[in-house]
From TrEMBL:
It comes from Paramuricea clavata. Residues 1-36, 75-104 are annotated as: Disordered. Residues 1-10 have a biased composition (Acidic residues). This is Zinc finger BED domain-containing 1-like. PANTHER family: HAT C-TERMINAL DIMERISATION DOMAIN-CONTAINING PROTEIN (PTHR47501:SF5), TRANSPOSASE-RELATED (PTHR47501).
């Protein structure tokens, strides 16, 4: 290149590294720094990649310090992730300050407020009713300060029902359960009941259960029909009255096929007097005619109309228990039994099989039969 005087002048032009335009932008390296395109009119064909440090040092001596500073800042940004502005920087720039870390007390208090709303008041009431009915707790429990403190300690934003509300809620649920039982037993034709009475802490009670077969699933269903207190002596007529009243209350009086009880004398007499007796057919054309006392039959029939009980069924388990205990002791006092038992036991030592059977029998009875 020549100047105006005709002298030849050589200009040191820095060599630029260029590459063909691609879709992806190249990542800068540690030895290079991104710069603007020196030939804008050629930007469609070529894209500037970077300037070599050697060329920058040789050609752009006056901009070398700024170039090195840019390179150092680029290295620092790649090595260290971006950090949030501090509160002082945010205040200086006028922006919002970074949130402070909460203290432990504040976190716990907020957690307590959150947990206090996990259980609704309706759930607390239902759980309280369920606890009192299944645990047989007295109604006065809800009036105890310690119980109130216990519930409020678990759920501070909830309240404990008063005694009157508890009584009303339990009565409503009992009515609902009774209604469901009536509807279930109304769909079947036959129902069997069991009953028993007992005494505890100077009080007498009677309990009645119901049992039937579901006509659709053929499964046996069971439920508790009643558990009532008996005032006074539980004589046979009192038991008959209570049992008939329970059958009538659940509308199963005509559906009860049999009622099972133990062998107590009061139950045996109640069913022998007021129960419907199963009559056997003894028709015999050759049998001679017999005269019966009509007056006695009418008297007994009128007496039996006071209460109407279903046929009676004695508990087989209780009967076997009586045989193995009281009846076995009575048999030992009988002379014929003693004679037969002694002759039988004398033949045991002669056979190992008999001796083994006797040993098993004594072990099962937990007593000696010799």
């Amino acid at each position: 290149m020549s100047n105006e005087d005709g002298d030849s002048v050589t200009e040191d032009i820095s060599i630029l590294e260029v590459e063909h335009c691609e879709d992806e932008e190249p990542e800068p390296t540690n030895e290079n720094v991104n710069v603007g395109h020196p030939w804008p009119y050629l930007s469609d064909m070529f894209a500037i990649k970077s300037i070599s440090k050697t060329n920058a040092k040789r050609v752009h001596q006056h901009k070398l310090s700024a170039f090195n500073k840019l390179c150092d800042e680029a290295k620092t940004k790649r090595k260290m992730p971006s950090r949030k502005r501090s509160n002082s920087d945010a205040r200086d720039s006028g922006g919002p300050s970074a949130p402070k870390q909460q203290k432990l007390d504040a976190v716990l208090s907020s957690q307590v407020k959150y947990n206090a709303n996990l259980v609704t008041q309706a759930q607390v009431d239902d759980l309280l009713i369920k606890f009192m009915t299944e645990a047989l707790m007295p109604f006065s429990l809800v009036e105890q300060p310690a119980f109130k403190e216990f519930v409020l300690g678990l759920q501070p934003n909830r309240s404990v029902m008063c005694r009157a509300t508890v009584v009303r809620r339990i009565s409503d649920k009992a009515s609902l359960v009774k209604k469901n039982l009536k509807e279930a037993m109304d769909k079947v034709e036959h129902v069997a009941t069991t009953t028993d009475c007992w005494s505890a802490h100077g009080r007498s009670f009677i309990g009645v259960t119901g049992h039937w077969i579901d006509p659709e699933t053929l499964e046996r269903k069971s439920c508790v029909l009643a558990c009532r207190r008996l005032k006074g002596k539980h004589t046979y007529d009192v038991l008959a009255s209570q049992l008939e009243d329970i059958h009538t209350e659940f509308e199963i009086r005509s559906k009860v096929s049999k009622t099972t009880t133990d062998n107590g004398s009061n139950f045996v007499k109640a069913f022998s007097v007021f129960a419907e007796q199963e009559q056997e057919n003894h028709d015999d054309p050759d049998k001679d005619c017999q005269f019966e006392d009509v007056f006695d039959d009418l008297t007994q029939a009128s007496a039996g109309l006071e209460y109407q009980l279903p046929p009676h069924q004695r508990c087989a388990a209780h009967t076997l228990n009586l045989i193995s205990t009281s009846d076995a002791e009575k048999a030992e006092a009988d002379g014929n039994y003693k004679r037969l038992s002694r002759s039988t036991l004398q033949s045991v030592p002669a056979s190992g099989i008999r001796a083994s059977a006797l040993f098993k029998l004594q072990k099962w009875l937990k007593r000696s039969v010799a």
